[in-house]
Each structure stands twice: as C-alpha cells, then as structure tokens.
Amino acid sequence: WLGELVTNGLIEPIDLQAKQKDFIKVSIDAFTWGNTLYGVPYAVEAVGLFYHKKLVPTPPKTWDDLVAICKRLTDKDRKQYGFLLPIPDPYHTFPIMSAAGGYVFGDNKDGTLNPLDVGLNNAGAVRGLSLLDKLVEDGLMPGSMDYNTMMGLFKDGKAGMMITGPWALGDLRDAKVPYGFATIPKIDGKDPRPFVGVQGFMISSFSKNKMLSKAFLNEYVATTDTMLALFNKDPRPPAYGPAAKAVSSDPDVAATGASAAAGVPMPAIPEMSAVWTAWSDAIDLTLTQKLDPKTALDDATAQIIATIKASKK
C-alpha cells in the first residue's frame, strides 16, 4: 500500500539525514518508493522456525537436517508431525521458494519494482516448492494445514517444528510451551528470504504541521530511548540499530532480527493484489498432488501477468 499512498499524493517524504544509516536496511527499503523515503520505521518482523524443545532440542541448520527430523518424528496414525507450516499460504511458503532465487517482482534500473517481471516460476521458486512437495509425497507433511490447527498441534507436542512469525509468541508463552525460535534452515547452502513486515510512522500530505511533524520524528522518535519505550510496550524487534543492539540478548528478538535481516520487504505496489490468489492456488494444486510444481507455477505466473496487463488497459 505504500505505492498507492505515494502515487495518490497522500504522504510526505521524510529525510532522516545521518540517522538513516542507523536503521536496519530492509526497514528503510520498506518505506522507500522511487529512491525517496516516506516513513520512519520502528519495528520489523519476519517468519522463522519455531521448534518444540521436548521434540527438537536444537534447531536444524540445513534442509537435510530438517528432513531427518521429520523422518524421526512423523507418525501420521498418531497425528504427529516433524514439521508444519500453514498451507497453501504464500506468505509462509515464500522463504522456501526464495532461498534458491524465487522472487515476486524484479527490479527496474531505478530501484522500483517491475510488475511484469514475475519470478514465481523460475528455477529457484520451483526448487523450493518441490522440496515441500517431496515432504508431502513421502508422507512427512500434510498437503493442507490451517494456522489454528498447526498451533494446536505444536502446543500439544504433536509437531516438532513450524514456520510462523513472532505474532505466535504470546500464545506460546501463555501456554507455557517449551519452544525455541530460530531462522529457517539453509537450503542448498543459501538462506531463505522471508517477507519482512515493517511498522513505522508516516506524515499525511494534508497535515497542517508538516515541518513540526518531521522534526518530531527525526529528533524524538528516531532515538534509542523512544524506540526502547515502544519495544517495552510491544516487544517487536526494533528497526533502529542502537535499540536492536540493546535488546539483542532476547533470543526471540535476535532470531526475528536475523530472519528479517535476510528477508525482503513485501512488495508495496498495487499489482501485488493480482498475485495472492493465483500463487495460493499453485501451492494448493501442487501439495494436494494435482499438478507438478513447475506446471502449477507456470500457470500461476501466466495468470498473474495477464491480470496485471488487463488492469493497465
């Protein structure tokens, strides 16, 4: 939605001056449109790997390690699984598809996104979806799974690992689940690149106090004290480097920060609305064994591009 706000003239540019270098790069990227910054980030979040310490004492470092754990723990008769993620949700699936080079939209030379360069059926994306398909084919993961069922299985000790984000922390802590939170294991030696959610502050173009608002964000909000105060009220990993360093001893914050640092901002252009349904359908058709990954992703990509082209006529 950042692109829509900018193109409709609804928000003001912001200049953080020398302070910009102190923010986590991906958080600045998320509030940047056409090389211009339009927000002050304060928190980042990205999915990672939760592991149940009674079943998985230490997290896997590689995808092969994860598969080995799945083989040890999975018992479909007892409805116990080694690894789960919400299926067919593209948001949670993207890190697996992006590790080897899958992407949603490519970049133009000026740094903006090219909505007609869709990378959801390239070799990396197909490789990632094929890994999940293999788990299903081998009986190590169900071909569909909703979020609430996954969380229930994990809390009951019936799932050793799951991919989701820091929004699950409160629920797990309340349930006193012995969990750990880590980055998603490497795939073919490469780091998964999850979507990064970034929270921050923007200024309305209709504000009658634009200069005062910009000074407030620059001089008061973009400080360690304010960022830590925000963190203490809502413990999302800080986007401001000095604040992130101050809370880096918290293992959940450290893991989320590491995932976010390897991640990519969610595409903030209107054409993203054409992506979700076709992409979700491709995951569903693959993991329910109706289509092979390449065919499903080719069909989805063609549908996405056709929808985007039609919207521009």
How does this structure look, described?
- The protein is globular and about 65 Å long.
- With 313 residues, the chain is of the alpha+beta class.
- The mean pLDDT is 95.
- The relative contact order is 0.20.
- Helix 4 crosses helix 5 (123-137).
- The chain folds into two domains: 2-45 and 196-265, Periplasmic binding protein-like II (D-Maltodextrin-Binding Protein, domain 2); 48-193 and 275-311, D-Maltodextrin-Binding Protein, domain 2 (3-Layer(aba) Sandwich), CATH 3.40.190.10.
- The protein has a four-stranded mixed β-sheet. It has a three-stranded mixed β-sheet with strand order 3-10-11. A two-stranded antiparallel ribbon has the order 1-2.
- It has helices at residues 2-7, 25-30, 63-73, 90-98, 123-137, 147-155, 169-174, 210-221, 224-233, 241-246, 251-262, 276-287, 293-311; strands spanning 32-33, 36-37, 40-46, 48-52, 81-84, 105-107, 113-118, 159-164, 179-182, 195-201, 264-265.
- The chain starts with a helix and ends with a helix.
Q: What characteristic shape results from the CA principal axes?
A: globular
Q: Please indicate the percent range of residues in DSSP E strands (runs of 2 or more).
A: 15-25%
Task: Report helical residue fraction.
Answer: 40-55%
CATH homologous superfamily (4th level) name of the largest domain: Periplasmic binding protein-like II
Predict the CATH topology of the largest domain: D-Maltodextrin-Binding Protein, domain 2
Count of extended strands: 11
| Spatial gap, N to C terminus | 21 Å
Question: CATH class of the largest domain, please?
Answer: Alpha Beta
| CATH-level-2 architecture of the largest domain | 3-Layer(aba) Sandwich
Low-confidence stretches: none
